[in-house]
Amino acid sequence: MNGLMMDWNLTISSILRYAEQVYPRVEVVSVTADLPRHRTSYGEIARRSRKLAKALQKLGVVDNDRVATLAWNDHRHVEAYYAVSGMGAICHTVNPRLFADQLIYIFNHAEDQWVFTDVAFIPLLEQLADKLESVKGYIVMTDQAHMPETSLNTLCYESLLEAEDDDYDWPDLDENRASSLCYTSGTTGNPKGVLYSHRSNVIHTMTAAQPNVFGLGSGDCVLPVVPMFHANAWGVPYSTAMVGAKLVMPGPKLADGEILHELMETEKVTMALGVPTVWLALLQYLRDSNKTLTTLKRTVVGGAACPEAIMREFDEKHGVYVHHAWGMTEMSPLGSYNDEVPADGRSEEERWQLRVKQGRPPYGVEMKIVDDDNQPQPWDGKAFGALKVRGPFITSHYFRYDEDAMDQDGWFDTGDVATLDENAYMTITDRTKDVIKSGGEWISSIDLENVAVAHPDVAEAAAIGIAHPKWTERPLLIVVPNPGAELTRDDVLAFMDGKIAKWWMPEDVVFVDELPHTATGKVQKLALREQFKDYQF
Ligand code: AMP
Predict the structure, then answer these.
(1) Cα separation of 191 and 328, whole Å?
(2) Measured between alpha carbons, how far is residue 89 from residues 47, 62, 197, 208 in Å?
(3) Per-residue confidence of the chain (537 residues) as pLDDT tens digits?
(4) Side-chain half-sphere CA neighbours of 289 within 13 A
(5) CATH superfamily of 14-25+41-205
(6) Which pairing describes strands 38-41 and 27-30: parallel, antiparallel, or unpaired?
(7) Which of 23, 59, 452, 464 could form a disulfide with 244 if both were Cys (CB 3.0 to 4.6 A apart)?
(8) Whether 395 is catalytic
């Protein structure tokens, strides 16, 4: 027997309709290239999104068409999110930091019909345009006065809106329809498209806003420093609208400590989210200028492991609680969240041991860790395993890709290696491809790197497995020393001694001037393995 409840589709437009009705005057503040400080509200964003949907209809955009965005975080990008998904088309956010070949591949694979772009990306698009097979034109997110000179077929965003009224009803879409598309840039092969649905995004939004996760409410003022082309800015443009929190959008200067500080103080930001690099820039600025943060209460740090030093400096110098989070594009992206760790009789040091972990899965994310034979490993905080997940906002298939993204039991392999403890706190110890397999056991390359970079003369370090006749693999540590430092192999190994298990000690240390990085700033272990493939201990 089925329940007798209404079939009410969980759609992206339902979030905007709600915000317009309940929080029409709550502010959305943006920095953009043409408007240094722009102020609007959810009510105005809702009206302009309807105008934009009408304009897109006139341009011939129909159901399921892909419409791309190449843009920083601001109110116009928020409007594009809601208008494109809301009208039944698919909002494809593109990362402008990718290499030209990857961008061409992504636009063509997605078959984007139109591209919303910031003025700043026009030169980039001019270089690519000849190779973009499906794109009909470019909607430049600015007003007539700031339209660039270009050979591209461009339309002006503000002029499109001026030509429309807001008399438009959002269609009642089936919640399982696709709403948005985001490609992941792995370190190997072509990028793969993650195709979110209205339903997955709405459930993710409700999960993210929960008290034990982002804990958002109408008293909050939220600054997503994470870009809107990276997994929907962790869903923030949806979750702030759903709870009526003020939204502050930083525009293009995502890693400028001074601008972030100024925005936080003048807009009274209470909560900010970003990757570790942006927080390093902010903390550096605060140190140099001797300033502090008077309104910020908490930050969420994810995308890469958050160094403990960042957490402590925020906490001890500025009274800001850092929440460590883990996720991935395929998970919408939230996978785990480290909520405020209660004292519960724990010493301060014990609390810190928990705080640095990547956190616990929220409702909607099931986890397990498995060994090479897919056998579940115990949740004892010690056993490592490949981390697998399942849930309603996790990818089942990549866009236009033959193979399932799930294994035969319906679990998604995250490609991360983790431990889980008895209280469900998860710690990422490695990527599956990077873990060093020595004598049937696993050595965490990340742990080796973390210990090595704590040496004052080490700027960066990477550990890789080198084939070994007896142990299968043994670790090689590759170190970039600080400029001018005179560092030897023995210095590094003596520093690491006692901080890791004896059998984890790198077999050797080599020094290089720099490490190869991907477009998103991750160390390219594959390139390093290739570079050192003939290395012998
Ligand atoms: P992306 O899909 O580009 O967001 O990349 C997802 C990957 O980033 C994950 O599979 C992890 O390897 C890594 N990652 C994200 N958050 C964290 C974190 N807090 N600690 C360690 N690795 C992380």
Answers:
(1) 14
(2) 18, 6, 11, 24
(3) 999 999 999 999 999 999 999 999 999 999 987 778 999 999 999 999 999 999 999 999 999 999 999 999 999 999 999 999 999 999 999 999 888 999 999 999 999 999 999 999 999 999 999 999 999 999 999 999 999 999 999 999 999 999 999 999 999 999 999 999 999 976 567 899 999 999 999 999 999 999 999 999 999 999 999 999 999 999 999 999 999 999 999 999 888 899 999 999 999 999 999 988 889 889 999 999 999 999 999 999 998 888 888 999 999 999 999 999 999 999 999 999 999 988 889 999 999 999 999 999 999 999 999 998 999 999 999 998 999 999 999 999 999 998 899 999 999 999 999 999 999 999 999 888 899 988 888 899 988 998 998 899 998 899 999 999 888 999 999 999 988 999 999 999 999 999 998 999 999 999 999 999 876 667 889 899 999 999 998
(4) 14
(5) ANL, N-terminal domain (3.40.50.12780)
(6) antiparallel
(7) 23
(8) no
At residue 240, what is the residue type? T
Is 486 a catalytic site residue?
A: no
Helix (H, G, I), strand (E, B) or coil at 530: helix
Does the active-site annotation cover 131? no
Ligand 1 mean position, distance from CA 468 (Å): 29
302 Cα–ligand 1 center, Å: 7
Quickly name the fold that domain 436-531 has. GMP Synthetase; Chain A, domain 3 (3.30.300)
Helix or strand holding residue 83 (H, E): helix 75-86
Please indicate whether residue 379 is annotated as part of the active site.
no
Residues 6+ apart with CB under 8 A from 506: 448, 463, 474, 475, 476, 477, 492, 493, 496
Give domain limits for the chain: 14-25+41-205, 436-531
CA pair distance 219, 212, nearest whole angstrom = 16
Residue 460: helix, strand or coil by DSSP?
strand
Q: What atom of ligand 1 comes closest to residue 306's alpha carbon? A: 19
Name the residue with the closest Cα to ligand 1, atom 15: 303
Shortest-distance atom of ligand 1 to CA 185: 3
> Ligand 1: residues whose CB is within 6 Å?
184, 231, 302-305, 324, 326-329, 333, 358, 414-416, 428, 431
Mutate to test the pocket of ligand 1, among 328, 360, 365, 433 (most ligand atoms within 8 A of CB): 328
Given 234, 442, 471, 504, the catalytic residue: 442
Closest ligand 1 atom to 358 CA: 19
Give φ, ψ of 524 to 5 degrees: -85, 90
pTM, 2 dp: 0.91
Ordered DSSP codes for 362-382: PTT-EEEEE-TTSPBPPSSSS
Q: From residue 323, how far is each of 2, 115, 168, 207 by CA, in Å? A: 40, 35, 40, 16
